[in-house]
Write a sequence for this structure.
């Protein structure tokens, strides 16, 4: 189980991409929800390998070297997480996770659900207002990277996953 947590942690960190300021609080939440110490350690260490950093490396060194660096980082993250987990286990100082993952309610409609909906709507309105403002004003904005194929595929995949999850939730509520 520790190996599985350590192998998945870098991908979780890359998908959440919250940066250095938020990874410790999120690691605490993960710990409270049953993620093992190896996964927590790998998650925290994965702050050094995020998609924007890989993209910057690709700009400077090319994709081959950038992916090589990312691969070396991934292996070192997993190895470090497992070594620390083994060392802490040997010394008997591994922090216990609060709950087992199977004990956690995966989804429920409570105040956070409704707050998420409200703030998603607010974020959408703010994005729309910003785009409208930029269309009406000729500002010299910094040229940002556009949406490449990988970004479009990733966004479409996450939207599909969310739609499937919501559909399955609605289906289970009807039963």
């Amino acid at each position: 189980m520790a190996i599985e947590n350590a192998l998945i942690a870098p991908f979780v960190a890359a998908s959440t991409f919250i940066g250095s300021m938020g990874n410790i609080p999120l690691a605490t939440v993960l710990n409270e929800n049953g993620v093992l110490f190896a996964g927590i350690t790998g998650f925290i260490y994965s702050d050094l390998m995020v998609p924007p950093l890989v993209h910057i490396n690709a700009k400077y060194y090319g994709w081959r070297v950038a992916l090589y660096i990312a691969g070396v980082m991934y292996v070192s993250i997993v190895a470090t997480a497992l070594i620390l987990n083994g060392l802490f286990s040997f010394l008997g100082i591994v922090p216990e996770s609060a709950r087992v993952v199977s004990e956690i309610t995966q989804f429920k409609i409570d105040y956070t659900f409704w707050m998420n909906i409200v703030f998603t709507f607010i974020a959408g309105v703010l994005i729309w207002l910003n785009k409208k403002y930029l269309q009406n004003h000729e500002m010299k904005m910094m040229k940002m990277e556009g949406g490449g194929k990988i970004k479009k595929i990733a966004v479409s995949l996450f939207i599909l996953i969310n739609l499937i999850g919501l559909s399955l939730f609605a289906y289970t509520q009807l039963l």
The mean pLDDT is 83. The radius of gyration is 20 Å. The first helix runs from residue 2 to 16.
